[in-house]
User: Fold Amidohydrolase family protein from Sphingobacterium arenae.
Amino acid sequence: MENKTYILKNVLLETGFEYQDHEVVKTKTGLFCVEVENGRIKSINANDPNASAIDAKGHLMLPAFKDMHAHLDKMLFGLPWQAVSEKRKTVKDMIAYEQKMIPEWLKTSVERTEKMIDFLQGYGTDFMRTHFNVDPTSGLNSLKHLEKALHNKKASADAELVAFPQHGLFYTDTLPLLKDVAQMDAVSFIGGVDPYTLDNSIEKAMGAIVQLAVDHNKGVDVHLHEMGESGIKTITFLIDRALENPQLRGNAFISHAFALSRLSTIEAERMAERLAEAGVGIVSSVPFGDIIMPIPILRKHGVEVLIGNDNIQDHWNTFGSGNMLQKANLIAQLYGYGTEWQLSRTLAFATRYKLPLDDNGNQQWPKVGNQADLVFVDASCSAEVVSRISPVKSLIHKGTVVY
Assistant:
């Protein structure tokens, strides 16, 4: 449905918390009519079930979901099923495989990226932070194909782009390409990957990444799988550079940051304090098993923790669901967030911290003037949405009804 003025009726909105003995025991809701005009919410009124309007059928309206770590340029989605190979165990093994396969993947990457966006939208996501390969094998083609796919989907999805030197800055001759890409307006972040493992120098690789970001007014989002000392040193390096360059505050991130999972509680508390002081965020796909990230400690100290699906179907991993609610549910299970209040707060990881109610139960979304990025879910409240991974029934992006 094209963007125009319209009214939605029978829209379920959260209005507050119900308390018993000072505990939140229930989320209050009500039915409303919501008017959308020019991509924004024009009015929110008492419900009129007889209005000539689009019927939301009592589904709960929530902010549309945000996937903050994706690789839309090189998913195998749309190709025949292929599990991961046990022969490729290291990042360098993966690089060698990519150098062989990228020319073939690029042949169909535009249409497959569009299919992946459709897939994510089916779970209520309308915004993605997506990395794209910058390397001698891809050249600028990964970016060109990604931009074409995003242009074709511009009416229903938004994205911010991270230039990602997957094959290392110096392990392969990628730095000249990254310098070219850093000058492009379409690119929001300069990325990197495991500087010690791939490029044999934290200072050399991270120094180049940060300098490009500062010189061209970009953010930083670096993949860091390294455990132990090299991982901590890389995180510390970015913290120090962000403190020296205030423009990076709130715009510098470490993706994965698995080294944090090996810290003691006291060490994690200290690191979280430093990350918060520098405005450096963590982007996580919420690993589990032998890697449990200290997300509660990070959040306690005010560190921005963004969540994404990362791999959905590719040569690295095939277990990504594409569902941001599933990620929020995993966080709730891993960290024991089981109460009505805790579950309702956990939805924030799917919406990049936009919630219908504040911590005290005051209604803060939607408001007149808000951009109409909306999902409609078959559930009674946010807590149920997270706990049950409730089905998404409709998505609206900037006022345009996607489905």
Remarks:
- Residues 373 and 397 are 5 Å apart (CA to CA).
